[in-house]
Specification:
Structural class: mainly alpha
Oligomer: single chain
Distance between the termini: 78 Å
Strand content: under 5%
Keywords: Membrane, Transmembrane, Transmembrane helix
Order of helices and strands: HH
Number of strands: 0
Radius of gyration: 32 Å
């Protein structure tokens, strides 16, 4: 019989259901919805149209977040370059001033 003081947690499993995306089918469904709405056969506030509007808003928001992140990365890189340039100039100044001091007192 084994005595253990520390129990290890059981391993975790990951269930991933892959989603197949067919752009042609989606376009076909949108076209059918548009035609039905033009003919007056479909109610505007049904569940699918609401889902489409929400999905579109989410896509625009996500794309906007990527644009903001890209701009912030660019600003960060510029800031880093300026700081490095300043440090190089300060290091050069200190190196030259110490070289003059060493030559002066030797």
């Amino acid at each position: 019989m084994k005595f253990t003081f520390i129990k290890t947690a059981p391993h975790r499993t990951f269930n991933h259901n892959p989603i197949y995306y067919d752009p042609a089918k989606e376009e076909r469904e949108k076209r059918n919805k548009r035609i039905r709405s033009e003919l007056g056969q479909e109610i505007e506030n049904d569940k699918e149209s609401i889902e489409d509007r929400v999905r579109g808003q989410m896509r625009r928001k996500i794309k906007g977040n990527f644009d903001v992140a890209r701009k912030e990365k660019k600003r960060s890189n510029i800031r880093l370059a300026i700081i490095l340039l300043g440090l190089i100039v300060a290091f050069y100044y200190l190196l030259m001033s110490s070289a003059e001091w060493i030559l002066k007192y030797m």
